[in-house]
Amino acid sequence: MKFRRVIIIDIASLGLGATADADRFNSTGADTLGHLDQHFHSTLKLPTLTQLGLGNIRADHPVKSVPAVDHPWGFFGSLINRVQDNTPNAGIREMLDIDMHCRIIGVLNELIRRNFSVTVISPLENYLIDQDWAKQIQASDDDMAYSQLMVQLKTLEQGLIYFQPPVIRRDAYQHQMRGYKANLEVMDKQLGILFEKLDPTDMVIVTSSFANDPTFDQQYTREKLPLLIYSPAYQNGKSIGDNHYAGDIGKTIIDIFKRHSNTKFAHSLLPLIG
């Protein structure tokens, strides 16, 4: 399948449970989604993410309000950050930089160099600011971010949109549980609206560049991160497995836009879908 547009939805802060190395980051027992579900007595409403397969990722450790579904829309799995730095900037960098043995390729600037459009809709983040070739839209609140996402989608013919709603991550950082739940539910509704606007040649990658369990005293927790891939071109999703790396997203994007890179540190997800 030839994709013309890719939209990365980075739900920055959403984690799915502690990684094997969580103790090195004071994150033993971290579980952003699970603890949110418990805190609100399983009243979390995420129908779009549920139908995509978010609950299927956690089939062996289910979240009551986000159950596994029999016929998921998306290709579902999980990923971890390889880098030994648990900050948001490090997670985004790992996702959007490709180590080519002798040099680092920045995915966003590489696409622009090859005449593809790239738009970044996000709060200020050092790594994203440095992508000076990309069209930058600073989003101060989620409403503005969602509005701009729809505007940019209307005009994008071929290329990439990276989208990170700012308030969700802010709520997690500030331990605002009620706001976190409410804004995550709004994001889920907006995701459903986005899907109605897509063409068969579009791909949406829903993930998170880092985790931040708001029930933990510290900021930033070391957790498994969601990986959900959706396109109207496919009627049925399936598991694509766990233990992928954030860099696999960047490798996938590079391969979609016809620059087949050779790197041992990341693997394209394209062979796993379809």
UniProtKB/TrEMBL annotation:
InterPro entries referenced in this protein's UniProt entry, alphabetically: Alkaline_phosphatase_core_sf (IPR017850), DeoB (IPR010045), Metalloenzyme (IPR006124)
Keyword line: Isomerase, Manganese, Metal-binding
One Gene Ontology cellular component: cytosol
GO annotation, biological process: metabolic compound salvage; nucleotide metabolic process
Residue ranges constituting the Metalloenzyme domain according to the UniProt record: 175-257
Keyword Manganese assigned: yes
Molecular function via GO: magnesium ion binding; phosphopentomutase activity
Record SUPFAM superfamilies: Alkaline phosphatase-like
Source superkingdom: Bacteria
Record PANTHER family: PHOSPHOPENTOMUTASE
Family classification: Belongs to the phosphopentomutase family.
The protein's name: Metalloenzyme domain-containing protein
Upper classification of the organism: Bacteria, Bacillati, Bacillota, Bacilli, Lactobacillales
